[in-house]
Design goal:
Shape: globular
Strand content: 15-25%
Strand order of the largest sheet: 2-1-3
Largest sheet: 3 strands, parallel
Structural class: alpha/beta
Order of helices and strands: EHEHEH
Number of helices: 3
Length: about 80
């Protein structure tokens, strides 16, 4: 099972994306978070295979949105 964390600050998008992904037999959204800080806390707690991140997350200290996350985890952005 592919474990996914989804970071999105708009509730309607969180709902739509999670429902679409969870219909797949080999993927599951394990955690949906609304901010960069929540995402960082969750990534420290559990392993994930994919982080699906809104690059325009609005509530963070440096206003970098999701763009600031890849460098913290030695990964890259794919759009």
């Amino acid at each position: 099972m592919i474990r996914i964390i989804h970071a999105e600050d708009e509730e309607s998008w969180r709902y739509l994306i999670a429902n679409k992904i969870n219909r797949e037999s080999d993927m599951q959204v394990i955690s949906s978070v609304t901010s960069v800080n929540e995402c960082l806390q969750e990534l420290d707690r559990a392993p994930y295979d994919i982080a699906l991140i809104d690059l325009n997350l609005s509530e963070d200290e440096d206003y970098a949105g999701g763009y600031g996350l890849p460098e913290k985890f030695n990964c890259y952005i794919r759009t």
